[in-house]
Design a protein that fits this description.
6-stranded antiparallel β-sheet; 9 strands; alpha+beta; elongated; single chain; about 200 residues; 6 helices; binds zinc ion
Length: about 200
């Protein structure tokens, strides 16, 4: 009983309100251990299966509700694949993509996501990859929601030639190469590749 209450309250504080029951029902159906984890830089969540133990899903506690929900369903999709297929499947292969998409469909609507996130999410869900970070429009939409209310802007939003500060250094914004932007550090004149979604201080 206590675990149920705890799970519901975790979900209530981390996923959009209309999705709480849906996420809770998945947890009840599959009976996995769930941990809202301390933030990890290298991943947003994970799924672990060990023989003779309950499967475990973790999601970083600091994610915004939209990213938390998508990450939660990403990991539940791993669990579904693990349960459905005896043979090992590639971690983010077709089986996982199908299950993940199936899990996303009931929540991909305006009740759960602002349009700014929903639009790129619908596109991402057509052929989901291991990380939302590889889908630039979705990544940017999620980052915009996380943006602190200061003068920070995403480096991709600056015009070429604009000067900005990042990690106490001053750079000139150059041209974009795929998901990164070539920037020149003012003092050393060295070129750096800065992630297009990095938050910088416009000078
Ligand atoms: Zn994964």
């Amino acid at each position: 009983m206590e675990a149920r209450f705890a799970m519901r309250s975790i979900l209530e504080s981390h996923v959009p309100a209309p999705a709480v029951s849906y996420c809770y029902d998945l947890w009840e159906r599959y009976q996995f251990d769930f941990v809202a984890s301390r933030p990890r830089r290298t991943r947003l969540g994970d799924f672990t299966a060990q023989p003779s133990r309950r499967e475990r899903i973790t999601v970083n506690v600091n994610l915004n509700p939209y990213n938390f929900l998508v990450t939660y369903l990403h990991e539940v999709a791993h669990l579904e694949v693990y349960r459905h297929y005896k043979r090992r499947q590639p971690p983010h292969g077709n089986a996982w993509k199908t299950h993940f998409r199936g899990l996303l469909i009931p929540v991909m609507n305006e009740a759960n996501f602002p349009l700014s996130v929903l639009t790129p999410l619908l596109d991402y869900a057509k052929n989901p990859t291991a990380s939302t970070g590889t889908h630039l429009p979705l990544m940017q939409a999620l980052k915009t929601i996380d943006a602190p209310q200061t003068d920070l802007v995403m480096v991709s939003q600056l015009p070429e030639g604009q000067i900005f500060r990042l990690n106490q250094k001053v750079f000139v914004r150059g041209t974009q190469r795929r998901t990164r932007i070539v920037c020149v550090e003012k003092v050393s004149q060295k070129k750096y590749l800065v992630a297009a979604h990095a938050w910088v201080e416009k000078l």
